[in-house]
């Protein structure tokens, strides 16, 4: 994992320049409009409630979460010279973040998503106007920041990118030996994984996105989502894993190294072919955490590293390494930022030098903080609370019965 934390040398105009490693996040900056009724809504009429503007976009949410956990990063995106674009950029600039990677021009209409929630705070319907991300976040624009990608500890791409931009981003990172995290965004957009699958290190689908990705990669309609409409049926963790196992195997067989399946209240599955190399926390290396020492020290002292390292498999074996992480109980305010903060917390921890099990525990703790917040990413994280929640998840995580390749 030495490539995760290196500094690099950039040759620019014949001059040698030191570049500090920053995580690179590529994807959408979106203005979310959240409409929440105060009473159950009736069709074809207005309903009293609250309408709020929220700073959103998967890439932006992930980047904000990482930044608030102390990670240095570079965001590559596109916004317009309009009201939504101004709101997004003003906040990003006020947080001390660079605007260098964010393309702006008159032709861009900033991405906006209008979300309608039910009285419980769960998403009931949404309309997305995000075409500008596909149109203007081009391979050519992303290529301008190849020096950032080449020195990054990790690159995250969200599936708002067009397939050519997605493929170019992932290929560029892979050529530099930089791990790539693919965030599927939605069931429809998750199928874009096909264009870049051979370059992807991590993927973080929910159950429905997993099925869609497996079907797209199989060029067929082989897999079906698990029916959970009958609330009297409660699947055990092992039976849920058994049902999802064939679809997970498709992603692993196509080259994705680590599949992280988010299950809502059922927790998270961490899966790979054999024991992933990201399982080991090499705490003996000098400065393993870059500039993010607080997170590294706090988690490492409370969640002893290398918990499952003695699993009797090697990376790429014909058996699946699988660990289940429970969800944390939370006082839910809003669910929209949970998945993005799970990814952001996990990536921040990987960048800090923590192993994947420690990192995912932090991700789940970050997701809990997000659902208890009014905004997509909390205004601030309490390191003590993140550490305490991560510790609870870490020690409750369990290896599942390893499955042979089908």
Question: What does this 3D model show about the protein?
Answer:
GO terms for molecular function: hydrolase activity, acting on glycosyl bonds; kinase activity; metal ion binding; pseudouridylate synthase activity. This is Carbohydrate kinase PfkB domain-containing protein. InterPro entries: Carboh/pur_kinase_PfkB_CS, PfkB_dom, Ribokinase-like. The strands form three sheets. The chain has a ten-stranded mixed beta sheet, with helices on both faces. It has a four-stranded mixed beta sheet with strand order 5-4-8-9. A two-stranded antiparallel sheet has the order 1-2. The chain is built from 13 helices and 16 strands. The longest helix has 17 residues. Helix 1 packs across helix 11. The N terminus is likely disordered. With 406 residues, the chain is of the alpha/beta class.
């Amino acid at each position: 994992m030495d490539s995760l934390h290196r500094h690099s040398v950039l040759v620019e105009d014949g001059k040698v320049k030191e570049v500090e490693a920053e995580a690179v996040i590529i994807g959408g900056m979106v203005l979310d409009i959240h409409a929440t009724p105060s009473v159950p809504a009736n069709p074809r009429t207005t309903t009293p409630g609250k309408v709020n503007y929220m700073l959103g976009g998967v890439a932006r949410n992930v980047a904000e979460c990482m930044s608030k956990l102390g990670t240095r990063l570079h965001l590559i995106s596109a916004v317009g010279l309009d009201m939504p674009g101004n709101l997004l950029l003003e906040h990003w600039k006020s947080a001390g973040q660079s605007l260098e990677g964010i393309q702006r021009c008159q032709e861009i209409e900033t991405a906006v998503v209008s979300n309608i929630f039910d009285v419980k705070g769960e998403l009931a319907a949404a309309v997305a106007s995000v075409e500008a991300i596909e149109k203007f976040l081009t391979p050519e624009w992303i290529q301008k920041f190849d020096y950032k990608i080449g020195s990054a500890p990790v690159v995250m791409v969200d599936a708002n990118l067009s397939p050519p931009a997605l493929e170019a981003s992932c290929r560029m990172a892979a050529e530099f030996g930089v791990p790539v995290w693919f965030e599927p965004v939605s069931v429809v957009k998750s199928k874009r994984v096909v264009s870049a699958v051979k370059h992807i290190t991590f993927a973080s689908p929910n159950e429905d996105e997993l099925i869609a990705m497996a079907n797209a990669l199989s060029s067929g309609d082989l897999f079906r989502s698990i029916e959970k409409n009958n609330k009297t049926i409660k699947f055990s963790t092992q039976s849920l894993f058994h049902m999802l196992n064939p679809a997970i195997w498709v992603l692993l067989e196509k080259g994705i190294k680590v599949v992280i399946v988010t299950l809502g209240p059922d927790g998270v599955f961490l899966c790979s072919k054999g024991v992933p190399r990201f399982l080991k926390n090499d705490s003996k290396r000098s400065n393993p955490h870059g500039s993010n020492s607080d997170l590294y020290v706090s988690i490492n002292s409370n969640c002893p590293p290398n918990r499952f390292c003695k699993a009797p498999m090697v990376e790429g074996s014909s058996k699946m390494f699988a660990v289940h992480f429970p969800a944390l109980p939370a006082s839910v305010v809003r669910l929209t930022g949970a998945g993005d903060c799970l990814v952001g917390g996990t990536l921040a921890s990987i960048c800090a030098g923590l192993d994947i099990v420690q990192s995912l525990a932090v991700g789940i703790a970050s997701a809990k903080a997000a659902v208890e917040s009014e905004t997509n990413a909390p205004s601030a994280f309490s390191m003590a609370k993140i550490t305490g929640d991560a510790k609870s998840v870490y020690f409750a995580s369990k290896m599942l019965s390893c499955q042979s390749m089908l």
